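Field reference: sequence -> structure
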Amino acid sequence: MPKIRHLRTKKPPEGFEDIEPTLAEFAQKMKDAENEPHEGKRRVESLWPIFRLHHQRSRYVYDLYYKREAITQEVYEYCLKNGYADANLIAKWKKPGFERLCCLRCIQPKDTNFGTTCICRVPKSKLEEGRVVECVLCGCRGCSSTDFTSTKKEPRNRPRNAGDEDDTGNPYVIPEDPLDHSSHSRHVEHRQRGKESDDE
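Structure field:
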């Protein structure tokens, strides 16, 4: 959870204001998820939206720094230090085989019945055909790196905020999230709404 900023808080580095609107959108969605009613849900299921948003926010910062080189090291370290991204989760993403890891709990043997990793870490090619996997810890439906292998290279220095357009006119989309059940690509809509109001 991001630290509360006050008068004694160190001023954010230059460039942080470019990604602050998207981080604020994540913070608002996190509050909504925490206040969402839990009637009719299993106890563990009520935490899934929080795990999903935590993953998305960390992936957003990770991609901006390591894949698109759209933020400086100072901004990246500021995000880690102030809780805008999970440093431990990102450290795992940098290791082979963990590039799409959903959460740290899924690789802790003590949290499973048989002392192994979670079922969501098993590649889909190793599972029975047509079997639907759903992690009870975070709701992940598969985060094995082999399931997301792609030869397509992402362009560097892309816009920082969702909804901004790159040189080709394509809007920036939040990275794929294995915890997202409805879609693997989402637009953050605050920029889109702003554009629509300008057009009117």
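Note: Residues 19 and 161 are 6 Å apart (CA to CA).
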